[in-house]
Design goal:
about 20% helix, single chain, alpha/beta, six-stranded antiparallel beta sheet, five-stranded parallel beta sheet, 5 helices
Length: about 240
């Protein structure tokens, strides 16, 4: 396993509780849209066993052509040891990234794509949307639906409806309105439905989509094959 130690080049406050850490791009480090990585802080591998309290599984919110690795995360006042330690980091400090993989690359199957997310989960979808803008081949249309009770909606410079790009974006501030909208979207019986959020959020979305007649094969989750069986009854051996 290769561990890349890399420097924080910039820290951007997206909202009062959400920051994006922009990391220097290490030589030889590559990824594709929808990728996640293990993001670790100094000291995580100092002992005989990794200190898992200093490691988090994070989405990369940038594309390689942006020449920076973006990690977007919510840090509340009352937070975990990891978030509290990260909050004390400054530009110039070093962090580690390793085990990078994408479970949710943009599928180009000449279908409509619906991106369903909660809060900062939108960070996973930012690179998919940018990749679609750069190369819209074999994607009919993308619609993003995000629920965030804080109402501090992320990345509105990108997640803004643009008819010329065949892209629509929608934000709601409560779960009831959100699931009402999911039911409406599920009227499209031939589309692909990407979901990013907590495990509970995934299961609730899957249940709503199932009730509307959407098949598991149409649902894309940011989970490895070995985990998919916990959410979807599909053949994950291939």
């Amino acid at each position: 396993m290769q561990i890349y130690w890399t420097k924080i080049n910039d820290i951007v406050e997206e909202t009062p509780e959400v920051k994006t850490y922009y990391l220097e791009l290490p030589e030889g480090f590559t990824w594709e849209e929808g990728a996640h990585t293990h993001f670790a802080l100094e000291g995580f591998n100092a002992g005989d066993k990794p200190n898992r309290s200093l490691i988090r599984h994070m989405s990369i919110t940038t594309l390689p052509n942006e020449n920076s690795i973006g990690i977007t995360t919510r840090i509340k006042e009352d937070c975990s040891e990891f978030k509290a330690t990260l909050r004390s980091h400054n530009i110039g400090d070093y962090v580690a990234i390793f085990k990078t993989h994408s479970n949710v690359p943009l599928k180009r199957e000449a279908k409509h794509v619906y991106l369903l997310s909660a809060g900062v989960g939108l960070a996973t979808f930012r690179p998919l949307v940018l990749d679609y803008f750069d190369r819209p081949d074999n994607v009919n249309h993308i619609h993003s639906l995000n629920v965030d009770s804080s109402q501090d909606y992320l990345f509105q410079d990108i997640f803004t409806s643009a008819s010329d790009k065949k892209f629509t974006s929608q934000f709601v501030d409560n779960r009831q309105d959100y699931y009402d909208e999911v039911k409406k979207l599920a009227a499209d019986k031939d589309a692909l439905y990407y979901i990013v959020g907590s495990d509970e959020f995934l299961l609730q979305n899957i249940a709503v989509l199932e009730e509307q007649g959407i098949h598991h094969e149409q649902i894309v989750l940011d989970k490895r094959k070995g985990q998919l069986a916990n959410f979807l009854q599909v053949d994950v051996s291939v």
